[in-house]
């Protein structure tokens, strides 16, 4: 892996996708603590509502892949989720074991509240990029709970700083629109798996401030990135794990790289 040359470098924020999720089980305290230790600028997490209204950090609709349980997050209460082991699967999948992954204090279900506490206690500015998952099924409840919780940490509402350390991402324009209407100081990121024909000129849906294209879009259509920048949008690209993709993103001037490998990307950028 060669380092990105100094001449091409600008400040690129390195965002740990689901925590340092190549090295530790995704969306666990173990993964986020590792990401903070690695020096990540920001942490990415997906949030879902449990049956009893708690926001938890889980990517899939069901817990089957990343725990020893079964069923949809939305059908389980927090107390049910708290009995599950979200760590051991990682050792089986990657053939890499760590004693930490069997430690329930590090690999039990992670609430967004606990993640906010971790960030608040980190001793430095660590930003959070929170993705609302399938918010349309919940008719505004995910956003409402999210803003309530952020308000308790002074991250939304009247006490919130202009320069918000939290941003909210979604594939759903409706979800972003709700956030923008209720909390205009919180930046919103519109995630894209493909570019819809009506947005090819670099515009974003109403309520979205930052563009979040996949690395595949960037590889196949670098000109689109230029249009996003020309339209005045920052660009946060996911999920960028390969050195040649980091190089491409740096060359194209993206503002943030979302990666499962924060330590490796920081090293390539000459920051670790
Ligand atoms: O950071 C955006 C990215 O996480 C979107 O895809 O499936 O990993 O949530 P996914
Ligand atoms: Ca995500």
From TrEMBL:
CDD domains, sorted: GDPD_like_2 (cd08582)
UniProt-listed InterPro entries: GP_PDE_dom, PLC-like_Pdiesterase_TIM-brl
Top-level division of the source organism's lineage: Bacteria
Residue ranges occupied by any GP-PDE domain in the UniProt entry: 12-269
Name this protein carries in UniProt: Glycerophosphodiester phosphodiesterase
